[in-house]
Every structure is written in structure tokens, then in C-alpha cells.
């Protein structure tokens, strides 16, 4: 039994697992729990998850597990984050009509992107949305749904996202945070921070904007736990629930990356970047979106396949041992190899690529293979390929004048620090870390405290407990400086061939 006092509940649904945590208002962890799940790939470029069987089922399981030895009356607030931006269509009863369509790893809407650009003009869309249409944008996926599944579209009464669906199941209210709303482009207008009718017909046809949830900030109160949600989860009715957000933004909060110039670098199933800015610096290669708190803006970016790539390698080359042991073995084997993996170079575009090339047709490429190469070489080449991709994104931020004061790393890929060292050596950038590396669920707990009225923004810094940073090695950086131009050239050289390969 824990010491008496209020507790804050943070819940995060990720690509391959969901995590929950109970935290005191001082940031001390009382309990945590993890539930594993999978994602579905029913067709080439289609990546989905079932909203009830995965998102909501995991949420219920996490809550019940965390409340086993805790009086529900002690839970002062709840906040959820989830993979996003996703697209979920609900009927008039609030029930999912089909599996949720995932974020930028789902590349099904390429033709809809082309059609919207042709109809509306790329420059006009960029001026309106402060972003270019990419596989991360939800608007083209809504149009895909309207064109390809007319029966589902006819029954659709709400278009939402994963974190907002969890809030709906807990409170009965449809509400979405501004960070996620910006990715529902071109239906969101950053200047007014409201849904916009300007391009509604091109996306929604003859339907109205009332299909979309109410907009609010991540730390605002969305509502209270309903009687039905209480019955299903064990939470006390009336418990405050925060608006919440996508997992990446909650990850940034979890490590205190909330001040101007703070860059969160998330090592998850994908790699995500969130830079807090005093004012926006829009660029078609990356994403300019709202922040977690009122008045904040973020410059964001995301790669398509990073942790998912290491998971694929583990599944294919070390399936004879448990997953965690396999990861440990491959990281150890790869750490003994020199920079460049003995002549192996990999493009980590196994699910297309998001920023900065924004090419949904990109593919993974492994160059330089010899019979002497082992699974350790492939694993190290994957880690380095992701590192080169991170460098490409950081250079893009620098190109458009974004100021980075510090880089804070978070996510499952930070375990053991091997990957972080490779990335720091490739980029020449130091990476800070905090001792609590739970990730998004820990950030959600802070949002829960905000929604419950227990915490102020400045209280977040008292939660942070820094550990020694990861510093670049000059000698290894010199080796990577010689390889980085080859990485960039490999994409340019193979792009024409890859784009002609069958899906």
C-alpha cells in the first residue's frame, strides 16, 4: 500500500505497447505497468490498429492493473496520449466504423495528396497550413476514406484521433489538442487556431466541420470520468481528465523539453523531433504545429521507421530468444564494430520516409553487403542509418534558422546508451537525459496534474532529475563525416529504381 495522498494517472498507447504510470504531485513514481500489442498491415502502405481491441482495451487493462492496490478516490486526475495523428471514423453512437488509420507510416493517401495539391495549389496549402501535405497529414486520409469506403463515410458522424478517442471513452466528450489538430490539414488554420472552412469541400465533400472534435490545449480539462467509464475501468466517477495529446509531445513534456530552444529527440518505433520555438519558422520539409500549452509553437519532424526497424531485425535474426534478450545481444555485438559497420550503409526507409525527404515511396536500401557481414553488421548499419537520418533532420532545422539550445533524448531506444552514442558521434551533438525515462506516460501524469489544478507549468522542472549527458567523440565523428555524404547520395542514386519497384 502506498503512502496517502493524491496520485496522477498517465496513460500512453504506442505503436507496439501501452504504458501506464501512477505518480505523486512531486513526480515520484508509485506504480507502472506495460501491455504489449501489435499493429496491422492489411495492404502495402496501409498501417492500422483496432481502436477498441487495442487502444481502449489496453487503457482499461492498464488502469485496472494500476489500481489493484490503490483507492481510486486517490486518483486526482487522468491524462492520455497515443500514437498520432491517426484517423478514426465513428458512427452516431460513437462506435468505430473501421480500424484506425495510423500516422505517417501509413502512406495510402499518396494519390489524394497529389489531387489536393493539383486542385488547391501547393503554395496555397502551405500558406494556409504552414505545412506541406505529406503522409503525416490527416486531410488526405479523410479524402481517401470518402473515396474508397463510401459505406463507412456515409455512416461517419465523428472524425477523431487515438488520444481523443480515449478521452471520449472516459468522458463522453469529443475534444482534440491543437498540436494534433494542426495535422488534420488543410482543415486547421494555425493563425486562428480553429477549424477552417476554406478547403472543407475538397476534404469533406458536402459534410460539415461538425464532424471534427472541439479544440483545446493538452493540459486543459476535457471532462470527467463518466459512470460508464467508471464501471469499465474502476476509476472514480467525476475524476478530471485532461485533453491529452500525441505520444511524441507527451514524451517532450516527460523530459522537461518545454522551453524555447528545447529539442526533444524521441527514440521510439519512429524517431520524432519536437522543438519549442518562440515563433514559427514554417518550411515544407518539416511540420509547424501548436505546442502543449497555450501560446506555444513547435517545429516538429519525424522519421518513418527507426525502432520498428530494429524490431524487424530482432524478429528476423534473433527470433530464437526472448525479445529483450535479443535486443541486448544485438546491441552488444554491434557496439564492438567500428563506425561504418565494416563497409555497410543502410537507408532506414522501410516504411517510406517522412521528414525531411517526405517520400512515401522510399524503401530500405542496404549497400555494401559481403559474405563476411553478420547480423551484428546489419544491426549496427541500421543504428547508423537512423543516426544519419537524425543528422539530416537537424541540418534541416539549422537551414531554416531554428535555434536549438539543448537536445534531450527519451524513449525505449535510449536504454543502454549505445544508440545515443552513435547518434551523438554522427551529429556532433550532445544529448541530455533524465533519470526517469518512462516517456509519454510520465508526461501524461503531469498533464493530469495540470487538468486537476494541482500543478503549475513551472512545477515540471522539479520532476526532472538529470543524468550525465552523452557527448560526441571527435575521432568517430570524423569517420562518420566521411560516410554521411555517401548516405545522402545513396538515396539520390537509388530513388529512380526504388520508385519503379512494385508495391
From TrEMBL:
Keyword Membrane: no
GO molecular function, one term: kinase activity
Listed GO biological process terms: carbohydrate metabolic process
Top-level taxon in the UniProt lineage: Bacteria
Keyword annotations from UniProtKB, A to Z: Kinase, Plasmid, Transferase
InterPro entries: ATPase_NBD, Carb_kinase_FGGY, Carb_kinase_FGGY_CS, FGGY_C, FGGY_Carb_Kinase, FGGY_N
The Carbohydrate kinase FGGY N-terminal domain, residue ranges: 8-252
Domain Carbohydrate kinase FGGY C-terminal: 264-452
Keyword Transferase included in the entry's annotation: yes
Family listed: Belongs to the FGGY kinase family.
Name of the featured protein: Sugar kinase
Species of provenance: Deinococcus ficus
Amino acid at each position: 500500500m502506498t503512502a496517502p495522498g493524491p496520485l496522477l494517472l498517465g496513460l500512453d498507447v504506442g505503436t507496439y505497447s501501452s504504458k501506464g504510470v501512477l505518480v505523486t504531485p512531486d513526480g515520484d513514481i508509485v506504480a507502472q505497468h506495460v501491455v504489449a500489442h501489435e499493429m496491422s498491415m492489411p495492404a502495402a502502405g496501409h498501417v492500422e490498429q483496432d481502436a477498441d481491441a487495442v487502444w481502449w482495451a489496453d487503457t482499461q487493462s492498464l488502469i485496472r492493473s494500476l489500481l489493484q492496490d490503490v483507492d481510486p478516490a486517490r486518483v486526482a486526475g487522468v491524462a492520455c496520449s497515443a500514437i498520432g495523428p491517426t484517423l478514426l471514423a465513428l458512427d452516431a453512437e460513437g462506435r468505430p466504423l473501421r480500424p484506425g488509420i495510423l500516422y505517417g507510416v501509413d502512406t495510402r493517401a499518396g494519390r489524394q495528396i497529389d489531387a489536393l495539391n493539383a486542385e488547391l495549389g501547393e503554395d496555397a496549402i502551405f500558406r494556409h497550413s504552414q505545412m506541406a501535405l505529406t503522409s503525416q497529414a490527416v486531410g488526405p486520409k479523410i479524402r481517401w476514406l470518402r473515396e474508397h469506403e463510401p459505406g463507412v463515410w456515409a455512416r461517419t458522424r465523428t472524425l477523431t484521433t487515438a488520444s481523443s478517442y480515449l478521452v471520449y471513452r472516459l468522458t463522453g466528450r469529443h475534444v482534440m489538442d491543437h498540436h494534433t489538430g494542426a495535422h488534420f490539414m488543410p482543415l486547421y488554420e494555425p493563425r486562428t487556431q480553429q477549424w477552417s472552412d476554406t478547403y472543407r469541400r475538397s476534404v469533406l465533400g458536402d459534410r460539415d466541420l461538425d464532424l471534427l472534435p472541439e479544440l483545446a490545449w493538452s493540459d486543459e480539462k476535457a471532462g470527467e470520468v463518466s459512470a460508464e467509464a467508471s464501471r469499465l475501468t474502476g476509476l472514480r466517477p467525476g475524476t478530471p481528465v485532461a485533453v491529452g495529446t500525441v505520444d511524441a509531445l507527451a514524451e517532450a513534456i516527460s523530459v522537461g523539453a518545454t522551453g524555447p530552444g528545447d529539442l526533444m529527440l524521441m527514440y521510439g518505433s519512429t524517431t520524432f523531433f519536437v522543438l519549442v520555438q518562440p515563433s514559427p519558422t514554417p518550411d515544407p520539409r518539416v511540420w509547424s504545429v501548436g505546442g502543449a500549452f497555450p501560446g506555444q509553437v513547435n517545429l516538429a519532424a519525424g522519421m518513418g521507421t527507426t525502432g520498428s526497424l530494429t524490431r524487424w531485425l530482432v524478429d528476423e535474426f534473433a527470433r530464437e530468444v526472448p525479445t529483450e534478450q535479443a535486443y541486448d545481444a544485438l546491441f552488444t555485438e554491434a557496439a564492438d564494430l567500428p563506425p561504418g559497420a565494416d563497409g555497410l550503409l543502410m537507408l532506414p526507409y522501410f516504411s517510406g520516409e517522412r521528414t525531411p525527404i517526405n517520400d512515401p515511396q522510399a524503401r530500405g536500401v542496404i549497400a555494401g553487403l559481403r559474405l563476411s557481414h553478420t547480423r551484428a553488421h546489419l544491426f549496427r548499419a541500421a543504428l547508423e542509418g537512423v543516426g544519419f537520418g537524425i543528422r539530416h533532420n537537424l541540418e534541416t532545422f539549422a537551414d531554416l534558422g531554428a535555434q536549438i539550445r539543448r537536445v534531450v533524448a527519451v524513449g525505449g531506444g535510449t536504454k543502454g546508451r549505445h544508440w545515443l552514442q552513435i547518434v551523438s558521434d554522427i551529429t556532433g551533438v550532445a544529448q541530455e537525459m533524465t533519470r526517469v525515462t518512462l516517456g509519454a506516460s510520465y508526461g501524461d501524469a503531469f498533464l493530469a496534474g495540470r487538468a486537476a489544478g494541482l500543478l503549475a507549468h513551472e512545477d515540471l522542472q522539479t520532476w526532472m532529475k538529470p543524468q550525465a549527458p552523452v557527448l560526441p567523440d571527435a575521432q568517430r565523428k570524423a569517420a562518420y563525416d566521411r560516410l554521411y555524404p555517401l548516405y545522402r547520395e545513396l538515396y539520390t542514386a537509388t530513388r529512380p529504381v526504388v520508385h519503379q519497384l512494385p508495391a
